[in-house]
Amino acid sequence: MSVNHEDPHDDHALPHGRALRLGIGGPVGGGKTALVAALCHSLGLAHRLGVVTNDIYTTEDADFLRRAGVLDPERIVAVQTGCCPHTAIRDDIAANLDAVETLEKRFGPLDLVIIESGGDNLTATFSRGLADRQIFVLDVAGGDKVPRKGGPGVTTADLLVINKTDLASLVGADLTVMSRDARAVRHGRPVQFTSIRRDTGAREVAEWVIGLLEDRPRERHVADRTRTASETA
């Protein structure tokens, strides 16, 4: 990371009172936007959501989500990065922070803001000053060798999702090999296989996100206790 942004990951305590920010990154065509749509379908009735999409020169991903009717269109904000996608999520995050703040002012308080990166490579990661947790999305069409190539996105994301499992036999991808290699490079971090085409609610990924949201009261308690201790010291 070339810019030193504040990192709320250090003690897993989120800043008090604001939405959980979930970054979703990965290469072009892996299914990031489909995953965002699926999470909105699964979580939108029970949780207060906002979405920020990133595209280089267009608003295509935001337009797709609006047409799909996954959320109130005003809850979906598009960022045009005008540069390599990872720059806007990792190095110069101002435009994305502005978009998040716009949603929070317009609809706050929110429970969850999903920030979708533009399609990028295996090195793409979110600044910890922008995203509290990160999902990295691959798909089997890239070949079963991709997980073992590693890269910060694959190895350090809080959750790795390998999508389009329904295509594995058609493209000659061995899911057993992908599972073995992904788990080897991730050292215990979770990996989930899915086909969002078949599971339109991405149920297992949604359950993982719900787990994050259910942990928020505990994290806020830790933040409050830490703040109180520092104020009385």
From TrEMBL:
Q: Which residues form a coiled coil?
A: none
Enumerate the UniProt keywords alphabetically: Chaperone, Cytoplasm, GTP-binding, Nickel insertion, Nucleotide-binding
Question: CobW/HypB/UreG nucleotide-binding domain: which residues?
Answer: 22-191
The principal location of this protein is cytoplasm
Highest taxon, organism lineage: Bacteria
Q: Where in the cell is it found?
A: Cytoplasm
- Biological function: Facilitates the functional incorporation of the urease nickel metallocenter. This process requires GTP hydrolysis, probably effectuated by UreG.
Q: Assembly and interactions? A: Homodimer. UreD, UreF and UreG form a complex that acts as a GTP-hydrolysis-dependent molecular chaperone, activating the urease apoprotein by helping to assemble the nickel containing metallocenter of UreC. The UreE protein probably delivers the nickel.
Q: Which PANTHER family match?
A: UREASE ACCESSORY PROTEIN G
Q: Which family does it belong to?
A: Belongs to the SIMIBI class G3E GTPase family. UreG subfamily.
Q: What's this protein's name?
A: Urease accessory protein UreG
